[in-house]
Design goal:
The protein has one helix and two strands. By secondary structure, the chain is of the alpha+beta class.
Length: 68
């Protein structure tokens, strides 16, 4: 499964190091399976941070590797 992350910078290796507690789902690294949603978040993040460029990073996720 392909997952996407919209930001103002490329994220090659996701790490949870800083997060805003006011976010809808709390701390975490947010992904979506909808590339258009990731593009919108990239634009929004650029506007909020006023630096970088809108970037959508993508990841191949293998759900079979998850523990039950």
């Amino acid at each position: 499964m392909k997952l996407y992350h919209g930001s103002n910078t490329v994220v090659e290796r996701p790490r949870i190091i800083k997060s805003d507690l006011r976010l809808d789902f709390g701390k975490g690294f947010y992904l979506t399976s909808d590339i258009e949603q990731a593009k919108r978040w990239a634009e929004l993040t650029l506007k909020r941070r006023n630096e970088g460029s809108p970037v959508v990073s993508f990841y191949d996720f293998d759900a079979d590797l998850m523990d039950d």
